[in-house]
Amino acid sequence: MQGNTLALVLTFTIAALIPGLLIFLTSILGPKRITAVKALPFECGMPPSGPARDRFPIKFYLVGVLFLVFDVEVVFFYPWAVLCRDLSIFGVLEMMVFILIVALALVFAWKEGALEWR
Question: Does 84 reside within a domain?
């Protein structure tokens, strides 16, 4: 058991040290020539159309969070589909309850206007 713990601690230590070392070396060895062009906000090669610090509407974040929530829930369909035959009728009923809950959440978000982009 101690060997597994040591390996895990060593893995996390290396995983933290390598990015930290690379960021540190980049800050020391990297060029630091700031020009007026480099200071401009980058907008896909187009000239800037406004200040870079504009606020996004809350609807943008709400739609993004809802997309992530429903996208993650759909990921649960794959393992269920793989094991569907082994789960028998109980597995099918359990997934139907899950689908019902997800559908009710989607209907609720829709009725509350969370999916409106205006």
Answer: yes
